[in-house]
Amino acid sequence: MNALDEIRKLYFNTKRGTVRKDISTAIDLFKTLKTDEEREKAAVFMDGLSQMRSEWAQGKGRDE
Predict the structure, then answer these.
(1) What is the Cα–Cα distance from 33 to 56, expressed in whole angstroms?
(2) Which of 26, 34, 35 is nearest to 5 (CA)?
(3) Taking the model in full, what pTM does it have?
């Protein structure tokens, strides 16, 4: 599985209790992406992870 696929998988499997660790892992994976196209695609998932973290920190969003 390549880094972009792993970031996508993290996005779809993130839970309230894992979001911080998942974002950290996604950042490390993002740094390994080689092309602008890959980075643009990954940015969508990265933004989604960030939004989930923010919503859950405020007590909103989907539950675990």
Answers:
(1) 28
(2) 26
(3) 0.86
